[in-house]
Design goal:
Elements: H1 3-37, H2 45-52, H3 56-68, E1 72-75, E2 79-82, H4 84-96, H5 99-114, E3 117-124, E4 127-134, E5 149-151, H6 156-161, H7 167-174, H8 183-199, E6 202-205, E7 212-220, E8 226-235, H9 241-261
Helix pairs in contact: 1-3, 2-3, 5-9, 7-8
Length: about 270
């Protein structure tokens, strides 16, 4: 075999390999499209193929392969639905997704963008439990430590954790044993909570620590429930009302990015 013949043969082999990879990728993507199409419920073959804009034969071939791998289930009167393998994969993914590890890059990015201290926390009884903290660049001492628990009612992060709860539940959090009761103060607090719930973020207006203010937003899991919250904290001199209003978008964007990494979507 001459050199030119060898080169042509190698080119043909390369083209065939590239074509096989492209075909495989297309099949994989179409298979994923089939799974996505069934998120809202079971569909018979005809409706599934119409939704995917594929022929029935192609749809049947893809769906049958997914049924074989237990990624889909099939019942004659209902059609195709999501299969038990996805439950196994979902459980495995949830076990592997360690919240602080997932959130850390976003916390660092938020701290760098604002130059302020960023906290991550979860609900622990009537308190916010701090899981992570990224110090800011400003020479400000914010008295918080990992593993500390702070009252829900007086922290921005704590308020963000309970935005989806009912007003009676808010009152229960406000009446926590370590929070002094004041009916007038509670009325103001409840009015602010209604506003926070409507807007999707919360403030700490020097309620938890003198001269420290913060902007906080909730983090949601795949089912849409609030599972954590983050906050940006700084000295009051750097946290004017105007700046806090500006930070709401930055903070909620970071919280939503973490939520997306946990599987949440605004559509869910």
């Amino acid at each position: 075999m001459g050199r030119s013949t060898s080169i042509r043969a190698a080119q043909v082999d390369g083209d065939e390999e590239a074509g096989a990879k492209a075909s495989g990728s297309q099949t994989l993507l179409r298979g994923l499209d089939v799974i996505d199409a069934l998120i809202d419920g079971a569909l018979p073959l005809a409706e599934l193929s119409e939704k995917l804009e594929l022929t029935r034969s192609t749809t049947h071939r893809l769906a049958s392969a997914l049924v074989d791998r237990r990624l889909l289930s099939f019942r004659p009167r209902e059609g195709y639905s999501l299969g038990p393998k996805l439950l196994e994969l979902g459980h495995a993914a949830s076990q592997q997704m360690h919240l602080p590890r997932i959130a850390r890059p976003w916390l660092e990015q938020l701290s760098a963008a604002t130059e302020d201290t960023v906290h991550l926390g979860v609900l622990d009884g009537h308190h916010a439990l701090y899981l992570d903290k990224v110090p800011g660049r400003r020479r400000i001492n914010i008295g918080s430590r990992l593993g500390e628990r702070h009252p829900i009612a007086s922290t921005g992060l704590g308020k963000a954790l309970i935005l989806d709860k009912t007003e009676p539940e808010w009152i229960d959090f406000y009446a926590a044993p370590d929070v002094p009761f004041d009916s007038a103060a509670r009325a103001v607090w409840l009015e602010r909570m209604r506003g926070y719930a409507d807007k999707g973020y919360a403030f700490d207006l020097e309620e938890n620590e003198d001269q420290i203010r913060c902007v906080a937003a909730p983090i949601r899991s795949v089912d849409g429930h609030i599972v954590a919250a983050l906050s940006v904290s700084s000295a009051a001199q750097y946290m004017s009302d105007a700046r806090m209003a500006e930070l709401t978008r930055t903070v909620t964007d970071a919280a939503n990015a973490i939520s997306a990494d946990l599987g949440w979507s605004p559509k869910s």
